[in-house]
Amino acid sequence: MKVRSMLLETTAPAKARGRRSAALPAAGPAGKVRKFLPEVQGLRAVAVLMVVAYHVWFGRISGGVDIFLLISSFLLTGQFVRKLESGRALELPKYWAHLFKRLLPLIAVTLLLVLGAARLFLPSIAWSGIFKQTWASLFYYQNWFLAAESVDYYATDHSLASPLQHFWSLSIQGQIFILWPLLFALAALAAKRWRLRIRPLLMYGFGAVFVVSLIFSIITTQTNQEFAYFDTRTRLWEFALGSLLALTLPYLRLTRIARIVMGWVGVVAMLSCGLILQVGQQFPGYMALWPTLAAAFIIVAGFTDSPHGADRFLSWKPLVKLGDSSYALYLLHWPILVIFLMVSDRQEAGPFFGLVIIIVSMVAAAMSTKYIDTPLRRNKWIEQKRRRAVTVIAVCVVLVAAPLTTWQSQIRATAAAAAAQVPSDNPGALTLLPGYVDKVSEDAAVLPALDGITGDWPKYAAKCEGADAPEFEALAKDCLQDGVLDGSATESVIVVGNSHAEHFSGAVRSMAEANNWKVTKLLGRSCIFSADTSAQNERCKTFNDEATQYILKMKPDRIVTIATKTTESTPDETLAPGYEDTIKAFTDEDIAVVGVRDNPRFTINMPWCADSKGRDSEECQVPLETLMPPVSPLENVGAGNALFFPMDMTDLICPDAICRPVIGNVHVYIDNNHVSQTYWNTMANEFARRLDVQRG
Fold it and tell me: Are residues 62 and 196 both part of a single domain?
C-alpha cells in the first residue's frame, strides 16, 4: 500500500450543512446579497472527489485537504461576522452544542463501522492501533496522535495503514471550531473596550495569525515535515486565509471578465495541484498556497452569470447535491478503501475495484446523509433546547466508548493471562538447543501478545546519572542503565548502536542480572556505530562521536555493538563501515568489543503474516538465502585480536536456514526487522555460553 503518500492526505471536508449552511453575504452582478453560494458547495464536491480519486487510484495526495480547511473557516467567519456586525450575541455554548451535535453522529457511525470491520476482518495485531486511533478520533486529537507517531521510532509499523488516519484533519477542524469562536469573542471585547470597528480589527488579527503561522509552517516543514503535516499550528494560516477572504470579499469589486478568468484559473490550479506538486514531501509549507489560493480565486470569482464562468460548472446540480454529502463521503471512503486493501492483501485497488470502492462510498455517503445526518440536523425538537443537543453528543460518545472499552478490557484480560504463563510455555530459542524437553501447555498463548507486540522492547531500570551521566545533552536522553548499579558490579558493559542493538541489549541485561554486571545502553536510532561515519547523516555522526568519547571516558570492560548491516530487498550484508578501526580504537584502550551479526530484514511484517495467514503458512516461511549471504561478513574480522569477539546468532533466529514468525511459542519478530525482546531473552543463555567459549 502506498501508505506514506496516502497517510499524508486524509482530511475531512467541512460539515455539509445543506443549502442554508453555505449562506454568506456575497454580491451578485447587481450588488444583491445571495443567501446561498452553490459554487462553494460545488467546490466542496470537486475537492472531495479529488481526494477520493487520488487516494483510490493514484496513491497520492491532491491538495484537497487545504481547500477544505479554507472553506470551513470561510463559512465560519461569515457566520460570526454577521452576528457581531448586527449586534447579536455570539452564544458560544449554544454554537458549540449545535455544531458538535451535527458533526458527531456520522463520526460515531463511522467509528462503529470501523470497529465492527476490525473485529470481523482484521487480524488482532491491528486492533491496538485502531483502539488508540478510535479514542483520538472521537475526542478530536487524532492529528497530535499521528504527529507523535510520525517521529516515534517505537510507533506501530507505518507500512500498515489505519482505516482511521483520515480523522487527523477533522481533529484540526474541531480544534479550530473551538479556537476561532474564542478569537471572535476576544475581538468583540476589544472592539467594545476601545471602540474599534470589528471587521478591520479581525482583519489585523487574522492577518497576524496568517503571517506567523505561515512562517512557522515553512520552517517546520523544512526541518521536521512528518510532524509538521499533522501540527495544528502549521495549519492555522490556512484557516486565517479563509477568514481574511470572508472579511475582505464584500470590498472586492472586479469586472465580470476578471472574475471569469479567476474562476477558471482557480479550477485548473486546483485540479492540477496533486499532479504537479510532490505534496506529500513539501506540505504544509509555502506549497500549500497553491490549492488554498486556487480555492480563494474560485470563491472571489463567485457568481458571474456567464455561460463561460467556472461557477456554471461548479453550480451544476449533481455537484451541488454531492456537496451535501461530501462530509459523509470523506468519512467513509478511506475506511472502505483501507479495509478492502487489507482483506484482499492488495497494494492498490486498481481501476475496476477502485471504481467499485468509489461507487460504494458514494452510495453509503448519500444514505447516511439522508437517513442519519439530515434528520438530526433538521430536527426542530432537538434545536429548541441546548441540553437536547448536548444529549445527542453524549449519546454519540457513549455509543462508541461503551463497546470500545468493553473490547479493550477483554483484550487486557487475555494479555494478562498470557503474561502469567510459566516460562516453560514460551521457551522460544531454547527449543533449538540440545537436551530440550517440551513442556509447553496445550492451550498456552504465543508471546508477546499481538495486541502490544510493537512495544516489546527492553525496559531499563534507570537513566544514566551521577558519574555515569553523559556530558552531552543529546546522548544523555538515550542513556539507560540496569543490573548492579551500587558500585559492586563485577563487570561493566555498554551496549551501543541502533535499534537492533537495543533489542539484543535485553539479552545482555539478562546476562547482567545473572552475573552481577552493570549494563549501560546508548541508543542512536538508525545509526550504525562505526569509526567511519562519512555516509551517515549529521545526527548519526554526532551520536557516534559523542558515544565514542563517552565510552573511552567510562572505560567499561566491554562494549557490544551491531557489526554488520542487512537489507530488506536483497541478500546483501556488509560490514559496518570502518568496523575494524572501531574494534582497534577500543581494544587499544583495553576495552573488549563484542560484534554481533545483524538479524535478517523482511519485505513483510512477520507477526502480521502469522496472524492473518497462520504461523505455518508458506508465505511466512522465508528462506534465509533470500535475506542474507551464507558467509558472514564477520568471518576473519579482527583475527588475532584477543579482545574482539564476533557473535552470530542467525542459526537460532532462522533455524535450518528458514526464518519463521514463531519459534517455541514466541513471536520472533515484532515487525519486519526487529527481533522481539521476548525472543532475545530466550537466546540470552546461549549468547552467554558462546561468549564464554570464545573467552576461553
Answer: yes
Q: CA-CA distances (angstroms) from residue 651 to 305, 620, 664?
A: 76, 18, 14
Q: In this predicted structure, what is the pLDDT of residue 558?
A: 95
Q: Are 80 and 248 in contact (CB under 8 A)?
A: no
d(CA 315, CA 486) in angstroms, rounded, equals: 76
pLDDT at 452: 83
Q: Which of 115, 113, 112, 175 lies closest to 142 in space, CA to CA?
A: 175
Q: Are 455 and 154 in contact (CB under 8 A)?
A: yes
Asked whether residue 234 is assigned to any structural domain, the reply reads: yes
Q: Are residues 268 and 129 in the same domain?
A: yes
- Pair 368, 465 in one domain: no
What's the pLDDT tens digit per position in 641-660? 999 999 999 999 999 999 99
Asked if the structure places residue 448 within a domain, the reply is no
- Asked which of 407, 436, 453 is the last residue of a domain, the reply is 407
Q: What is the pLDDT of residue 60?
A: 73
Task: Round to whole Å and give the CA distance between 34 and 32.
Answer: 6
Contacts of 639 (CB under 8 A, 6+ apart): none
Tell me how crowded residue 378 is: count the other CB atoms within 10 A of its CB. 11
Verify that 131 and 239 share a domain, yes or no. Answer: yes
Q: What percent of the chain has pLDDT over 70?
A: 93
Nearest to 100 by CA among 433, 313, 393: 393
Average pLDDT estimate for 198-225:
95
145 SS3 class: helix
Domain of 204 in residue numbering reads as: 3-407
Between CA 44 and CA 48, with CA 365 as vertex, the angle to 5 degrees is 25
The reply to whether omega before 318 is within 30° of 0 (cis) is: no
If we measure between CA atoms, which residue out of 133, 193, 200 comes closest to residue 166?
A: 133
Least confident range of 37-46, 172-181, 384-393, 489-498: 37-46
Asked if residue 479 and residue 376 are part of one domain, the reply reads no
Same domain membership, residue 370 and residue 499: no
Per-residue pLDDT at 24 exceeds 70: no
The answer on pLDDT for 178 being more than 50 is: yes
Residues 641-668 as b/e (b if ≥16 CB within 10 A, e otherwise) read: eebbbbbbbbebbbeeeebbbbbbbbbb
Assess whether 212 and 323 both reside in one domain: yes
Enclosing H/E stretch for 539 = helix 538-554
Distances (CA, A) of 650 to 580, 598, 601, 608: 21, 8, 12, 22
CATH number reported for the structural domain that contains residue 493 in this entry? 3.40.50.2300
How does residue 152 score in pLDDT terms, banded at 50, 70 and 90?
low
pLDDT tens profile 590-605: 999 999 999 999 999 9
Per the model's pLDDT, the better-predicted residue between 159 and 437 turns out to be 437
Phi, psi of 482 (to 5 degrees): -160, 175
Same domain, 50 and 161: yes
Residue 450 counted as domain residue: no
How many structural domains does the chain have?
2
| H or E, element range at 214 | helix 198-223
In 10 A of CB 640, how many CB atoms? 6
In the prediction, which pLDDT does 75 show? 94
How many Å separate Cα 452 from the centre of its chain?
A: 17
- Give residue for cell 479581525: 202
Is residue 207 pLDDT above 50, yes or no? yes
The residue ranking higher by pLDDT, 342 or 405, is 405
- Name which of 52-66, 144-158, 535-549 the model is least confident about: 144-158
653 and 666 in contact (C-beta within 8 Å)?
no
Can you tell me the distance from the alpha carbon of 42 to that of 302, in angstroms, rounded to the nearest whole number? 12
Per DSSP, the three-state class of 201 is: helix
